[in-house]
Design brief:
The chain has 310 residues and is α/β, with parallel strands linked by helices. It is built from eleven helices and eleven strands.
């Protein structure tokens, strides 16, 4: 069957269309996305303003048209931290349902972490052993650890690249004092939960998912996305320690010229790099592998798991 996953994230609204059936690897057929940056559209009270709601409705309608054009049989719509944490979330969800007919499932941070872990486990297989998965989104950082398909521990922290950029780094390039303050904040947040993971023992394999890790790996020398998903891409802590100070003094336009960095994400790259470096350092990760599958694939896989086997 042809499935569509409609991901209303903190940065983008992304429709991923795949051909899939139980027991088979989902094959990407089409991708439709629109930059929204909901994490940066919250007002002083933490609500998504009228303009943001109208924009959200518009891009969802466009995504539904794209899904219909591609012959999608079933759309799995969900929203993550930006909608989840908006003070007017119920109102926004009601408006979206009324205007588009889409009832968004709002995932908790723990559910995000668990579904992303499932995707990484399926991609890497059982031979990866005890797996530690780090995922940096626009609104939150998800961390999960385990030996099975369902992680033994899954945590979500409010350390997304979009959220942190909007709240901590107003300058372009950011002021050194702001970068330092954000670095302290990020590390203090992560340090609170490191001990919970350390009690479970060291991981056999560490994985980073999400656009942030893909971009950081690319600027550190990893292969291009165009070279395909089966090339192993690594990111080292040493590379992060070298690149964070460089990124912090670059204006957005200069970051956008780096290999693999999109114009829409360039403004968030400093915050994302600080989170990646802090997480790798505090968890004692010298090198991680970038996994091409993440939350959207996890949602698809979970859906397929509940379909009857033909």
């Amino acid at each position: 069957m042809r499935l569509g996953v409609l991901d209303v994230g903190s940065n983008t609204v992304h429709l991923l269309v795949v051909d899939a059936h139980p027991g088979a690897r989902p094959l990407p057929a089409h991708s439709h996305k629109a930059q929204l940056r909901l994490a940066e559209l919250l007002d002083a009270d933490g609500a998504i303003g009228p303009a943001g709601v109208e924009r959200l409705i518009s891009v969802i309608k466009d995504a539904l048209v794209a899904a219909e054009d591609k012959g999608v049989e079933d759309v799995l719509p969900f929203a993550t931290s930006a909608v989840r944490e908006a003070t007017n979330a119920d109102e926004v969800l009601a408006r979206v349902a009324e205007e588009t007919g889409v009832s968004l499932t709002v995932l908790s941070g723990e559910e995000e972490a668990r579904l992303t872990f499932l995707a990484a486990r399926r991609w890497l297989g059982w031979s990866a052993g005890r797996l530690l998965v780090l995922d940096i989104g626009g609104g939150s950082l998800e961390i999960a650890y385990g030996l099975d398909e369902d992680p033994a521990l899954a945590v979500s922290l409010p350390l997304g690249a979009g959220r942190l950029t909007a709240g901590w780094l107003p300058g372009d390039p950011p002021e050194p004092t702001d970068v330092r303050a954000l670095r302290r904040h990020v590390r203090a947040q992560i340090a609170r939960i490191v001990g919970d993971f350390n009690r479970l023992g060291p991981p056999d394999h560490v994985v980073g998912t999400s656009k942030t890790f893909k971009q950081l790996a690319r600027i550190a020398g990893a292969a291009r996305s165009a070279d395909g998903p089966y090339i192993t891409r690594k990111l080292s802590l040493q590379a992060m320690e070298e690149w964070v100070p460089k990124l912090a003094v670059m204006p957005t336009v200069q970051r956008a010229d780096l290999p693999g960095v999109s114009e829409g994400r360039a403004s968030q790259l400093v915050a994302g790099a600080l989170v990646a470096e802090g997480a790798m350092d505090l968890f004692g990760v010298e090198e991680l592998e970038v996994c091409p599958w993440a939350l959207r694939e996890g949602v698809i896989l979970r859906r397929l798991d509940h379909l009857p086997t033909p």
